[in-house]
Amino acid sequence: MANITRDDWQMKVENDLVEDKGDYKKNINREVSILQNCEHVSVVKYYESWREHGKAGSDLAAIYIQMEHCPLDLYEFCGSIKNIYKRNTNQVICLVSYFVMLTMVEEILVALDYLHSKNIMHRDIKQWNILLKRDGDNWVKLSDFGLAKVEDAYSQTHTNVGTATYKAPEVKWGGHYTTSADVLSLGIMLIQFFDLDINKQNVHHELKDLFASMIAGKATERPTCKQALASISQPPLIYDLDKTSNTTMIRAHSSHIIDNRLSFNSVKHI
């Protein structure tokens, strides 16, 4: 393994019963297995894991998962953006803020599309599980695979898991579901992130139409991550149609804002 400094990693600790043979232990083992098999700039990097027994006579053990350190999550970052660029729900988003958020969305979709290409359902997409860290030209790090599962062509997934607010109806009802359930969770998260009312078509109606399709009640009517990514990469969702120097300056300023917020949060946690 390459040399890793303390600033590069963070630890996830799971308490476990030594004799537990149930789903909890299975989920931990599955999380480690999925992390080991994921290699993508927008997925949190796995380093190693190990299990330590508790004190003599105790049934408790701790499982440690060492992963890439990321200074903050999307929820914290979203709060910062709202403080800098104050607006009411459903008002027009200023250009710099729009570029910052659209950059995040593109990277999240790329990360989730990568998982889905490996037949992995995340099953707990929400702002707290999207971490941020500067990595080359990327910021997003998809994390927390405690509920993730590999889709099996020979069996169906029915387990009701995830965070209630972000669950697809087929998950809530205990029906068969696929990676499209992640798309619905992401759609709900993005509506919150952009602070838009999709029932009002007065501003950003193209974005609202995309988000509305992502939260469609029928799984078959939702776009894939690849299709959603194609939508936000094309006019009219992309503002910089003329590729002007002014747009280049706005993109650079957007990057500067993200980097400053990450730097501030890194110092705060030292």
UniProtKB/TrEMBL annotation:
Residues 1-270 form the Protein kinase domain. GO terms for biological process: negative regulation of translation. The chain crosses the membrane at residues 95-115. Keywords: ATP-binding, Kinase, Membrane, Nucleotide-binding, Protein synthesis inhibitor, Serine/threonine-protein kinase, Transferase, Transmembrane, Transmembrane helix. InterPro entries: CC_SR_Kinase (IPR050339), Kinase-like_dom_sf (IPR011009), Prot_kinase_dom (IPR000719), Ser/Thr_kinase_AS (IPR008271). GO terms for cellular component: cytoplasm; nucleus. It catalyses: L-threonyl-[protein] + ATP = O-phospho-L-threonyl-[protein] + ADP + H(+); L-seryl-[protein] + ATP = O-phospho-L-seryl-[protein] + ADP + H(+). SMART domains: S_TKc (SM00220). PROSITE patterns: PROTEIN_KINASE_DOM (PS50011), PROTEIN_KINASE_ST (PS00108). Its EC number is 2.7.11.1. It comes from the Eukaryota. One of its GO terms (molecular function) is eukaryotic translation initiation factor 2alpha kinase activity. The keyword ATP-binding applies. Belongs to the protein kinase superfamily. Ser/Thr protein kinase family. GCN2 subfamily. This is non-specific serine/threonine protein kinase. It comes from Medioppia subpectinata. The lineage of its organism: Eukaryota, Metazoa, Ecdysozoa, Arthropoda, Chelicerata.
